[in-house]
Design a protein that fits this description.
Strand content: under 5%
Low-confidence stretches: none
Length: 52
């Protein structure tokens, strides 16, 4: 930071610290739930092979 430029703008280090703390928030965006889909151990997928 440049103290001389901050002084010209009338901003203190405390102002900057307070602004960072005010904007540094944790906002949960939903829920994490257990996957309730049935799991299978074997899956079959058809494959088409081309002759080289």
């Amino acid at each position: 930071m440049k103290p001389d430029q901050l002084a010209k703008l009338g901003i203190t280090i405390t102002d900057i610290s307070n602004a960072i703390q005010a904007q540094n928030t944790v906002n949960p965006a939903g829920q994490v739930e257990e996957n309730r889909l049935q799991k299978t151990s074997n899956s079959l997928m058809p494959c088409l092979l081309k002759d080289a």
